[in-house]
Specification:
Radius of gyration: 19 Å
Oligomer: single chain
Largest sheet: 5 strands, mixed
CATH superfamily of the largest domain: Amidase signature (AS) domain
Helix content: 40-55%
Strand content: 15-25%
Shape: globular
Mean pLDDT: 82
Distance between the termini: 42 Å
Structural class: alpha/beta
CATH architecture of the largest domain: Alpha-Beta Complex
Length: 224
């Protein structure tokens, strides 16, 4: 560990739109226990303002898509992916004027300060990378628990990290019964990438690290 210091570790289960499924939640719990056994202080706590960060991130993304990508694809909309077409449709109903965009940039700065202050108290957070098992490339929507979700809804935990600009590393910790990978996400403080990598290495040592994929199971997915 950098400087031989103990790093307090927080680990979390829930996401904004969908509860993490049992196997991913169990993986986070298993990693938390492994780090506790190695002398780290581990507690379960939800990082702050996840829903607010996601909302601001989405509104900024819609405004930037409309302003920057819109002119470039004008007249060629039929060539866009279904996901991008849906984003354009949402942008038409959103407030994407310059004033609203500037206000959301300012709001993001406030959110960044709050999240970074939380991380100063809890230097490392462990979360799932995605709320569900891996899904086939090209998937647009999934029905879970009787509701339809876009694939981006399942990765809210990754969006949180990207929106705030935090270093993070994904570490494999196992596989589902169908052979799909299960990983956790190690989230750290800005400019403290070495702390993130140090914890990621400990998790690899405790959970086995890279697992060679079972190619024989690949036939369950559509060919690219």
């Amino acid at each position: 560990m950098p400087g031989e210091e103990e790093v307090e570790v927080k680990f979390r289960r829930p996401v904004k739109r969908l509860e993490v499924d049992r196997k991913r939640g169990d993986a986070v719990t298993r990693v938390g226990k492994a780090l506790s056994d190695r002398g780290h202080e581990v507690v379960e706590e939800r990082p702050p303002l996840q829903a607010e960060v996601r909302q601001v991130f989405e509104q900024l993304a819609l405004a930037e898509t409309a302003a920057l990508l819109g002119p470039a694809v004008q007249g060629r909309e039929e060539e866009l992916s279904p996901q991008i077409r849906r984003m354009f449709a949402r942008a038409e109903a959103a407030d994407t004027d310059l004033g609203s965009y500037a206000m959301r940039l300012a709001a993001r700065v406030d959110l960044e300060r709050a999240v970074c202050a939380w991380l100063e108290r809890h230097p490392i957070a462990i979360s799932p990378v995605c709320a569900t098992a891996a899904f086939p490339v090209g998937t647009e929507t999934l029905e879970l628990e009787g509701r339809e979700y876009e694939e981006t809804d399942l990765c809210s935990l990754s969006t949180f990290v990207n929106a705030i600009g935090l270093p993070a590393a994904a570490v494999p910790v196992g596989r589902t019964d169908d052979g799909l990978p299960i990983a956790v996400q190690v989230i750290g403080r800005r400019y403290r990438e070495m702390e993130v990598l140090a914890i990621a290495r400990e998790i690899e040592e405790a959970c086995g690290g890279w697992i060679e994929p079972d190619i024989s199971r690949a036939t369950a997915f559509p060919a690219l």
